[in-house]
Structure prediction request, 573 residues.
Amino acid sequence: VRRLTQTGIIMVIGVIVVSSTLNGLFLNFVKPSLRIPLIIASVVLVALSLYGVFVEDRRRAAVPLAESMHSEGEDGVGAHGHDHAGGPRIGWLLIVPFLLMSMVSPPPLGAYSAARDGGGLRIESANGLEPLKASDGPVDISLSEYSARAIYDPGRSLEGRTVALTGFSSPGEEKGSWVLTRMALACCAADGYAIKVVVKNAPPVPTDSWVRVVGTWEPSATSEDPNKIVLPIVVVTNLTPVAMPEQPYE
Amino acid sequence: VPDQPERGGGDRTMIALSAVMIVLLLLRPRLMALLNGHDAVAAWLTVFVSIALQSLPFLVMGVVLSAAIAVVLPADALARILPKHPAAAVPVVGLSGMVLPGCECASVPIAGSLIGRGIRPAVALTFLLAAPAINPVVLVSTAVAFNGRYEFVMARFVASLLTALAVGWIWLAMGKDSLIRMPARHSRGESRIADFVAEARHDFLHAGGFLVLGSAVAATINVFVPRAILDTIAGSLLVSVLVLAVFAVVVAICSEADAFVAASMNQFPPTAQLAFMVVGPAVDVKLFAMQAGTFGRRFAMRFSPLTFLVAVASAFAIGAVVL
Prediction:
């Protein structure tokens, strides 16, 4: 990889990453808290490549012929196969994920990944939950909060309340059934895991469609098997299709 | 004219790169439609991109700092500070790895330039193993990944430092320095800032290229290898430690991101998760390739197995005590 190409690769990566933080595409892959670090990193990358364009090119033009030949001979293509004056050939690979991100825009993890995960909660307690806020209509809460309240809340804060949950449909345990699902990240999509809520009295919904479900809590059957994941249940009174939220993960 | 080939070649590559991007841009709607109905491919792409995106800020910070240190530090400053006896220099350099945030990819060129500045190879190799494993960025990301379970942070710190020191002393006692081929420098000594930019850019592309290779393998295992297989292996302690140690070698995740992967594999015993984090920054496929490239293949063939054995033993010992 020559110096100028190296500069170009780094510039392209910087521009793609910074634009993904502006249009929200980065939220398909990582947590919202990575926005600022990503912006700083892209600014550094763009600065490194601008230095190459404006300073090195001018200096190169000013370097006497003999000297430039000498330095090529010494620092050019090295004995171990890559061009040290420019950069490693493997550097080309680095542009691949970023080109794919901007050109193909891979969707956030959906039903395919959810089906490969049981749907149990990672933090198995209801500690730190405030009382469910008072409201005349349904209260919008996340699937993880609903699950924590439904399974681990001894106060049964969901009893007699109407909640609204937003998620996508993924295949349930019984054939033809579906469960309300949201993927959650610890860090990036590589460690994404599913949070699932069983829906009762719900009409069939195609896999991977986003819905907002209004309903009430019903206690889940407890299991003798400690390894069996107990999923919370919501009895659906109203279901509306919605667009995918800007932040697809919880 | 010696300048022409580089300028011409660079321009041609840039034109090719731009052409590829324009074609991709025009085909964009079709490319996006291609993913419909291919859920596994879409999930693979998402995981693959997410690892690269997540690592990017860490990688940039690592290469910028390592370039600053490689360029700003005077050549003989280290030799003057270090204890004269190499056996005493090993722990000093091992602990100094704490102040150099960077991933393993960034520490290979630093170790190379340390040897170039007259530091004993065993001492430089201790640094190579310690810096990517025990620096503050790695420790903080470990604390975040394990959600404040600090015993994992401590176990990782102690086991990785132990690995680095043990390998350093073993190399001092039994290693053959003649196996090491002297590395070439990336910068040209034009000016400090020019050297800095050249080092940072080179390290970014070098480390990043190998990182992408690693993310492709990791995404494949993540999306296509059924979790059920890992669950069946997670049974016996000895087997699961060895499995995650080998897994760390194969997936080659940057040390600044590997704790998140380790934390997500909570069906494994804690000692196996620890082994994943101790082996990963010390020896993996991309490090092997980088070491073979920088120091020569004959060296890497001896050094990597030695490091693997010491790292696994160290994870076992510390895991038994701390976790």
